[in-house]
Amino acid sequence: KYAVGIDIGGTKTALGLVDSSGMVLSKASLPTDLSLSPQDMVDRIAQTVLDLMAGKGLQQADLSGIGLGAPGPLDTRLGQIAEPPNLRSWWGFPVVEAFNRHFHVPIVLENDATAAALAEKWLGAAKGADHFVYITISTGIGAGIYSHGRLITGASGNAGDIGHVVIDPAGGTCTCGQRGCFEHIASGTAIAREASMLLQRPVTSKEAFELALSRQDARMEQLVSRVFHYIGVGSVMLINTFDPELLVIGGGVSQVGAPLFESVTGYIRQHALNPSGRSTPVVPALLQQDAGLIGAAALIHTKY
Ligand code: ADP
Ligand code: ZN
Fold it and tell me: Residue whose CA is closest, atom 7 of ligand 1?
């Protein structure tokens, strides 16, 4: 049997047919058109799924279910999107019910970071780990927590929303109203914002890293070392809270690679409280491409 994985994002929605070994049979991506009503967007996504299925000669009876990954906050008990900042027109939208109009198979909703953590456990960097935390550093920051062989999803599916944990109260006001949230300081969005302010022109987070790591600009070097420092602080917070055997870091900003991983490892070696925590391995996510849709499919194919 097959699962459909659908990763709904603020800019695009990725979807695919995934078999029980995690192989993606076919996939598609469509822009998340925020000028459409969410139901119209779901209708479009559903049609694309039906087209993919037809392409492989599959019927609904060949599906074990549909996994949905979506940005938080959401409410998995109600099968609803709650109030994600980059999906405003979807606030309160009963997304599971909307897909149920098209498909009579089990439909499971979890937040996208949780789904990505599950994908890393299933096929990626956390295979075999019973205790790990997956951190995504991208447009925002989020985490998926896996403990005692199970995902920690929380009462409403919002556990691991570490982007809005305060990491430095002097760090400026976040979209959520708190001061100094992790994602307000260390997300790709935050890096680009700070770099653009410092250089007085639009600078992407990728360019900020390039200027810093090639030592062309002292201000970018300072910015990047500050960001690495705070990712270290966030990591130690997670290690001290959950005592994981492994930290997995993914998301666009993690593409910067070794400098980030070395810096965070160094911080953890110095600052995690317990001797085991200090030696926690910090590794890159393995599933970069298709991680979202594979994670969504994992909600159907794996027990969590
Ligand atoms: P999304 O947030 O939609 O899941 P990504 O995980 O690709 O998408 O994250 C996008 C963020 O990561 C953007 O802020 C972007 O500037 C940043 N980013 C993407 N690639 C890189 C890179 N190679 N180096 C540094 N930052 C990057
Ligand atoms: Zn916040």
Answer: 252
Identity of the residue numbered 128: G
Task: Quote the ligand 2 centre to 84 CA distance (angstroms).
Answer: 12
What torsion, rounded to 10 degrees, do the Cα atoms 302, 110, 141, 138 define? Answer: 70
**pTM, two decimal places:** 0.95
Lowest mean pLDDT segment, chosen from 17-21, 32-36, 45-49, 73-77: 32-36
List, as one string, the DSSP characters of 128-180. Answer: T-SSEEEEEESSSEEEEEEETTEEE--SSS-TT-GGGSBS-TTS-B-TTS-BS
Closest approach atom of ligand 1 to CA 253 = 26
Say how many Å lie between the CA of residue 141 and the centre of ligand 2: 10
Which atom of ligand 1 is nearest to 12's Cα? Answer: 3
Nearest in space to 238 (alpha carbons), one of 150, 159, 120: 159
ipTM: 0.97
Please state, in angstroms and rounded to a whole number, the distance separating the CA atoms of residues 304 and 300.
Answer: 9
Q: Can the peptide bond before residue 73 be classed as cis, meaning omega within 30 degrees of 0? A: yes
Residue whose C-alpha is closest to residue 8's, from 71, 91, 63 = 71
Strand order of the β-sheet with 141-147 is 150-152, 141-147, 132-137, 246-250, 282-284
| Distance between Cα 285 and ligand 2 center (Å) | 24
For tokens 């360019």, the residue is 207
Atom 25, ligand 1: residue with shortest CA distance: 206
The confidence band for 23, taking pLDDT boundaries of 50, 70 and 90, is very high
Q: Is 29 in the pocket of ligand 1 (CB under 6 A)?
A: no
